[in-house]
Amino acid sequence: MKSRVIACVLACLLCQFLFSNPKNEVLFRDSGNYIEVYGDSTFSVSGSTIQNQTLLDTLLFYNASSIEKVFPSFTSEDTSGTDCFGRGILLNDLSNIYKVTVNDSIDAENLIQLLCDDTTFFYIDYAEFNYNPITEEENSNTRVDPEDIDDELFSQQWYLYNNGNPGDINILDAWDITMGDENIKVGIIEPRTSYNHEDLNGCLEYSGGSSENNHATSTTGEIVANHNSSFIAGVTAFCKVRSYGILAQESEFVDKICDAYNSAFSNNCRVLNNSWSWDNEEVPDIPYTSSLNMENLIRQGAIFVCSSGNDGNAVRTYPSAYALPGILAIGASTKNYHVAGYST
To answer: Which residues of the chain have pLDDT under 70?
Structure first.
C-alpha cells in the first residue's frame, strides 16, 4: 500500500512547482565570454567585470548592482560526461551562467526583455528571473490541518499522515505546496480503472481496456481520489489520470506495454505509474525493447514510477531496475517505519 502512495506523491509533486520570482534577480548565459568574474564571490557591475560596453551600459541603466557565477565550480572541461550506459555525452556548459541583482522588480523585468533581444544581445542565450519555488504565502507558518481533511477513511491512511509519528510520507508538508494541478496528467498502466467509483468523479479522463481491476482502481484512487467526505483522500486530488488497461496475461507482452506507454505520453501524461513488474520466472531475460522505448520517452520528459516488486528478496525486477535516470523504483514500508517483509 505505502509503496503505491509514495510513488504517487513523488511523481506528481516532482512534476510541478508553484513559482514566484524574487523580484530583483536575473539569470542569463553569456556565450560571448564578455564577463570576467571568478569563484563564488560577488562582484560589482563595472568596467572591470563587464568587458562589453553595450552590456555594461545596459546593466547600469537598469540599476544592476552585483554579478556572480551561478555555478562557480563548473568549467568548460566539465561538459564531457558519461550516460548511464557508459557512453560519452556532451553536457550543457554551465560555466558562463550568471546572476545579476538589480534594485527593483520593474528594472529586472525590463532588463530581461532587453537581454532577450537577439539583434543587440545575440551573445546572450537567454535571460530569466531567478525563480523561487516557494511563494511568500507558502513560506508562512500556515499548514494544512488534518482535521480539515474529512474523507471518512483518512484517519486510516497512516502512510499519508501518522499523527506525528514516523512512517508517513509527510503529506501535510506536500499539501502546503500544492494539492495538484489539473494540467498534470498521470498514466495508469495496468488493468482498467473503474469509471463508476464516486471518489474518482471528474478525475478520470479516460479508462481503456476490457477488464476492470480493483488494484487499478485502488491505485488511481491513491493518486487522485477527491477530497469529498467519502472514502480516502488522494495524494494529488486536483491532478487528472488516464488509465490504459492491459490484461493480466498481457503484462508479459512487451509490445502491449510499449503501446500503452506511447498512447499515454501522446495524451500528455508525463507521469507513468506501473504498479506491476514482469515475473522473473516467466520473463527470465530483461526486455530490451521496452527499455529503448522508455528511454526515448524519458528524454522527452516522462517519469516512470515503478514497483520494485513484492517477492521479499533482493532479485531485481523490471521495469523498475532499468538503468535509466527517469525511473523511480518504489518499495514498501510498514506503519512502524520498517521495510515491509514482502517488499523487494
So the answer is: 1-23, 84-85, 132-143, 210-211, 247-252, 279-285
Q: Could you identify the residue written with the cell 471518489?
A: 199
The pTM for the full model equals 0.64
The per-residue pLDDT for range 207-258, each reduced to its tens digit, is: 887 567 788 888 899 999 998 888 999 999 999 999 988 765 544 578 888 8
Virtual torsion, Cα 228, 231, 234, 240, nearest 10 deg: -70
81-96 per-residue burial string, b: 16 or more CB within 10 A, e: under 16: eeeeeeeeeeeebbbb
Domains of the chain: 2-17+143-330 (3.40.50.200), 25-129 (no CATH)
Secondary structure (3-state) at 82: strand
CA angle 82, 13, 99 (to 5 degrees): 60
The 10s digit of each residue's pLDDT in 324-339 is 999 999 998 888 888 8
Which residue type is seen at 270? Answer: R
Strand spans (E) along the chain: 25-30, 43-44, 64-69, 80-82, 88-90, 97-102, 124-129, 185-189, 204-208, 240-244, 269-274, 303-307, 327-330
Distance of CA 67 to the CA centre of its chain: 30
Beta strand 124-129 with 25-30 is: antiparallel
Greatest extent of the chain over all pairs of C-alpha atoms, in Å:
70
CA–CA distance, 127 with 39 (Å, rounded to integer) = 21
- Residue 211 CA to residue 192 CA, distance in Å, equals 6
| Other CB atoms within 10 A of residue 99 CB | 15
15: closest CA among 200, 198, 241?
241
Residue bearing cell 554579478: 67
Q: Rg for the chain (alpha carbons), in Å?
A: 24
Cell of 63: 540599476
